[in-house]
Structures are given as C-alpha cells and as structure tokens.
Amino acid sequence: MYLYDTYDRALLAERVAEFRDQVARRLSGELSEDEFKPLRLMNGVYLQLHAYMLRIAIPYGSLSSDQMRMLAHVARRYDRGYGHFTTRQNIQFNWIKLADMPDVVADLATVELHAMQTSGNCVRNITSDQWAGVASDEIEDPRIWAEILRQHSTLHPEFTFLPRKFKIAITASAHDRAAIKVHDIGLRLFRNEQGEAGFEVVVGGGLGRTPFIGKVIRPFLKKRDFLSYIEAILRVYNQYGRRDNIYKARIKILVHELGAERFAQEVEAEWKAINNGELALDPAIVAGIAARFRYPDYNQLADDAPALTAARQSDRRFATWLGNSVANHKVAGYAIVTLSLKPEGGPPGDATAEQMEAIAELAERYSFGEIRVGHEQNLVLPHVAQHDLPELWRALDALGLATPNVGLISDIIACPGLDYCSLANARSIPIAQELTHRFGDLKRARELGRLHVNISGCINACGHHHVGHIGILGVEKNGEEVYQITLGGRADEAAQLGELLGPAVPYHQVADVIEDIVAAYLEVRARPDELFIDTLARVGIEPFKERVYAVH
Amino acid sequence: MPFIKAGRRTDDRFLRVADDAAIPESKPVLISAARLLATPAELSRRCAPTGVIWPNNRAIAELAPHLDRLALVALVFPSFRDGRAYSQARLLRERYRYRGELRATGDVLRDQFLFLTRAGFDAFEVKKEADADAFVAALARFSVVYQPSADDQVPAFRRRLNGGFQRDPAAQREAVS
Amino acid sequence: MTSPLQQKLKITGPVVITANRLADGAVVYRAADGGWTTLINEAAIATTAPAASAMLAAAGADDVLVVGPYVAPVEPDADGRAQPGNLRERIRVAGPTFDLPVIVGA
Description:
The complex is a heterotrimer. By secondary structure, chain B is α/β, with parallel strands linked by helices.
C-alpha cells in the first residue's frame, strides 16, 4: 500500500475542490453538457442507462481496509448498497446522483481514494498483477513503478486531451496476470542477461472494435529511462494519433498504420531529445516512492502448519476451497487467498456493502489490512498466515465469498452490459448468471479445469471477450439479442485473440451452446488434465464447430 | 473576444491579416503559416513584430527555422478536446527555446487555463467573458504538480528530493526497491 | 438496441423523447407541455420524423434540466399511452433484468 504524503493529499484536495466547482457550474447552466462532459469523465462520472455511474480508481488494485470501508459507506449512503469491481481493477457504483458527486469524492479523499482519470481521453488507472509484492515468481514489486507512473500521468498538462483513452498495465512476472499485451502500453519488469532489472515495453495492444496484441517496441528499457520513454510514446501519440474517427483513434491503430518498427523509430527520435532531461529518473526518487509503500511485518512461520493439515484432512469442503482459491506466497507460512465474487446466480464481480465491511474486517484480522482487486473481478487477501486459513474460510463461506470456482468455468468475467450500460447492445449479466447455474455443480466445474469465459455486451469489449478461452459477444440483430462465440483467446504472456466459432446464437441458446462446447472438449481432450485451451490448440476449432452447429 | 496576456485582460496589439491583404508596415501583424513560409525574407525586413498562426496538424520542426524573427506564435485548439497544441507548445518552449508570446486560440476555456499555462502558453484568446474574469483563480487551483513542464513550477518529486520526504510520525520500515 | 447515441433521425413508428435528469440521472420523458416526467405513459408521442426532430431540438435546449435526449421507440397501449418499444427502453423503465441486492441497514 502506498501512503500519501502532503503533496499527494494537497493535490487530491485541490482536485476535489475543482470538481465541486465544475459540478456547481454545470448545475447552474454556466457550463453546457458539451463543455462539462470531458470534465466529468476525467473525474470518473459516466451517464448510463438509468443514472450516473461513478468509477472509482483502485490504483494497481491495492486497497486498505479503511478504504474498503469507505467504499461500503459510499454504497450505503449514496448508492443502492452494492458496487461492481471491474476488469481494470476499479470499482463502479451505478446510482449516484450528480449533485452528490462532489460529496462522494470528498468522502473518498479522506481515505486517499479518488476517481481521477478513470475515464476521459487521458491516461487511465495503471493496472498491475493482483499478486504484486507477494508472488514468488516476480522479480520486484511492480506497484512502485505503477505509482510513479500514476503520479506522472495525473493532471499531466500535455496529455489530458489525447486522441482517445490510454491504458497502461505493468507486471514483474514472466507469468502475466495483468494482461499487459492487450494494453496501449504494457510493461514487463524483468532481469536481462547481465542481471540488470529493466522493462520490456509493449505498445499497441487493445481489444474493442479492432483488437490487437501489442508489439514489443523496446526489448529492454533501463529504469532510469522509464518516465522519459513513456513521455516520448505519449507525445508521439498525442501528435499523430488519429482525431478524425473515434473508432481509429487508439494508439493501436497508429502502431498498426505506421508499423511497429517505424513507430518505434518515431519514439526513439523523440526520446533521444529528452532522455537526459528532467525526466531522467534519479534512483533517489524511486527509493522515495518505494519507501512510502507499507509492507507487512511478517512473522517467522513454517509452511503446512499443523492446524492447516488437520483441517485439510478433516473438512472436505475446506480442502476443496484450499485447493482452488489459495495460492503459494513468497514468504514461508503465508498464503494468497482469492475471494470469489462469482457465486452461483450472482452478477459477476459485485459485492454488497455488508460484504465489503466484512472483507475489510477480515483483511485487518488476517491480511495486515490489505486487499487486492484482480482484473478477473475477484478480490484477494494477499498476506494470510496459513494457520489462519481454516478460520478465514469459515468466515468467507458464511459471507458467500468462498465459492471454490476461481479460474473455473463459472468464474466468469462479464461487463455490466445492457442492464446498466448505455453503450451496450445486449445483456451480459443474465447470460453469466445462467451459466453459473448450468455449471453450478462444483465437481463438474473442477473436472473441466481452468476455463476462462468472458462476456461483453458490445464491441467495446469491456468484458475482454477477445481474450477469453470462450468469448461471448452480445450484438443486436433486428431488435433481438444475439451472441457471437469465440474460442481460444488468452490474456496472459501467450496472449492471442479468439477465433469465431460460427453464426451468432440467440439469447436463449447461449447456455446450451456453451454446454455443447464443453461436451466436445470432454470427448476430445487427451487426458483429464489437458486444459481446454490446450486441447483447442491441439485439435483446432473444427470439432467444436461441428458439435455446436450440427445440433443447432 | 477577451484577450489575456501576462495574467490579465488587455488589448491585443496584433492585427490579423488575411493572406491576400497587404501587411501594414508599422503594426504588429498575425499572419498564416502559409504566408510566413512563402515570404520569409520579406518578413525579416519588417521592423514591427510579426506573429504566425500555426495549425495544430503541422510539425513544429517546420516552424523552427523562423522562430528568431517571430514575436508571436499562435497555436490552435479547433475543439478544446483536441490536445495537439499542448505538445506543440511544450516543444516550442522546451525544445526550441522560443521566448516570444505563445498564444492559445480557438476553443479556449477556463478549465484548460492551468494546463495551457503549464504547457507554456502566456497569452489567451478566451472564448467566454466569464472565463476571462476567472483566469487568475483558475491558475491558483493547484499548489502541487506531479510532472515538470514548460512552466517554472517545481514538480512534487523534486520538492521531495530537495526538502526531504515528509517524515511520518509513525515508525517506517525501509521498503525494498 | 443499437445505441441511440449514433442514431440518424428516421423513425419507423411512434416515438417519444427521453433523457436523464441532470441533477440525479433519473430517466425522464418529454411531456406534451414541454416539461419532463419520470413516467413513460405521460410522455408525448410523435409519429412523424419532423415532429420528433422538433421535439428533440427543443429537448436539447433544456441543457440545464436534462442530459443526452434521444428518440426512443414506444408501443402505445390500449389507451394510447406510451409503453417501452424495445428491450433497452424496457430496462430503463423497469431497471436491470435481475434482482438487485436488498439493502440492509442503510
């Protein structure tokens, strides 16, 4: 967790005051909607189907218990008692009044939460690995760099009116849990052959209407050059990104049209002019930011505490959850716990105010007061002592937060869709709910193994359907909701886009089609432990097409 | 249209001259990029100041050779959402060390004054009366900036280095980096 | 349900003008007297593109009351009152198509 200093707090307070003034000027009519809209977007305020929606940033997915309690407060006081965790590690509230927004952001600021730049044509929330700081396979904590970049990109005078939104993700593991290859800029912190830590820079990834996997434009960037190089990328984009067509305005289009090599040259040329200037990163600056990150005072514990072993042997349900939702921690005797926000029948990624408060308290008791938000719309308690796992599980189970389906077919990633979103063409949440019922049998879900289903309600792809093992895209045809199914997408270090299965499927048949796909997989897989995604890679899409479209 | 220079409302001394009109010898004039590039020598001979309106879709590098004979560069915001001129402004100030008047024209609104000033603009053709009156207040909105830019504000990271990071009363652990 | 934000104005049946109220975001409909109502069955119905355009233009001028007005299809009921004419408008009338959490101890 990064702790604000007086500068961070001052800027946030000033932003809150500015926004209050902007809202007042809008409500009085001094600002037209046309003038106000970009301003409110830069404070995370959308207009949706039923009401305004506020998107609050959870920087690189890190949240404290106090912050989680504040989110519960917002849900109760200003909204309808629940919130939705998103695929970019933010939280959304769907019912807040515009007139209340200034008070909401003022309340958030008291615990160092904000909604700055969670929308608009600017640099958005910098996302990262939800296991940052605790994963055994990372080389360093990437969140320090995410925070450096968060500050640099906040109210940046040159880059607040970009051609389009700009999303950056950063990981420090070879196994990419932050989907960096489908971001405008993806950064991977790694050690080169000389053992020096630096960044692989990937540019031009993105989903939506024209999905692309990002291209490496700089295989190794020194830490010192981190800010100046990103500044150069943004400057090239700000000047040359298309402004004539909003569907061609992302950096991925610029990279595609110029070619990665030419784009990289443009960036290098700009970068050479600034790399020894004020943005050259003094290690003291990095150390200063790092020093404001709080890390737990871990106890000296051993793995496989007796309490844990005993519980595992005596309680089958606990053992199942343990095997599914608990991952290895880099510190002996500790564990990383995922809280599934995908209960059977529930809208994926939602939590009630009661759940938020309970999670805040559990985090205090069991996780040094820290929670993480993952882009799969689940939560994480990152610092749990193994001997506490049985008690923690009982508490989570009672709260409906221990469904042992993490990474399984019912751990669905879905956008809000037409039930909430004014951009949507079709609903996504009811599709997800139906699928969680069809695959509610956990034994069956475990048999199917790791299988990522992603659902988007329109081509903007907020559900990341392009990179789902099974991707479902809702479209509208003759006033009806129909769904295109893709197979074989991946969001990790082997990122790839899914392939279209066949003609779109009507709303009421989607769950049946998914069952057919699953049946085909079971027939064709080489072994019970051959994952769906690997079976698909081995046999291709034909056997699935045949199965689905023969019947339908 | 209200005009702001050096932080206050004032009269614009520059005369905009159309491409096909004669350039008055002893008045400050503001001409198009096309005209500047077509007649640079002629303009060098002028005693009165010359300014150019430079479109936001042309590289500043093209303008650079002419800067030493220009007293004014006016950049354009066709819509306030089109932010290309922010980059142009910073390049002019920081790359090419341009010291003359740098003017924001077009869709120039109050909520962009601070960004514009930080990017290096020091003159503004302001769209709305009420916005012009609020100029000084708009600049005073933020006492902290996170990044260096064309203005002289010291970014937070440098203030921290110079003044030391704010020490926390609570005990701190040295974090790994 | 193609987002009406990209609509060109041609209509294929009866329509109303709908928007969201500025201050609180509530769904509203333009009534015959030029005011705004939260009840779709009080909305003024237009049956020709020129009439709809005129209503939309007038609504657009109400920038201080409502945001994002657009033309929405309706199905008049037996009494000639407007009812939502597609899924998007049904959702705007009735809310999300699944149960929302019950608020506990607000």
